[in-house]
Amino acid sequence: MELVSGILLFVVGVSTGMAIMFARNKWDTGSQQAKQALSKCQQDNAQLKQEWQDHLATFRSVATNLNEMSNHISAQIEDAEQLMKQPTHAPSFPFFSKEATQILQSAGPDKRQRTQISDQPLDYSNSASGVFQGEQKRVNE
Fold first, then answer.
1. Does the model's pTM come out above 0.70?
2. How many other β-carbons are positioned within 10 Å of the β-carbon of residue 101?
3. I need a surface site. Which of 19, 29, 74, 131 has the fewest CB within 10 A?
């Protein structure tokens, strides 16, 4: 009986050891998969964080450029407004005399009408005169 109980204890011990080994192996593979998934998530998270930092740097650069362009445009608009608001003043050395300047300033922007010239200069009149006097050659066709 001692032999049977020894064999029985041996078989129970081996089966218990094998059951513990299988259970540990099963839990460890799940643990390994969890560790791998956790590692992959951490890598993805680090990659996303780096991409966000790159995007934020790009956005900061664009915002800075837009701000500089806006300031430049505002300065140009202010300069244009100042030029538009400047009063017109007479030059220190006027081209025309004082009287002529007053006449020109008081004259309206109306265009004057052209006068019709009835008499042509003699060189361009119908009858020959001056240098153009002479015989006319006739061409027979």
1. no
2. 13
3. 131
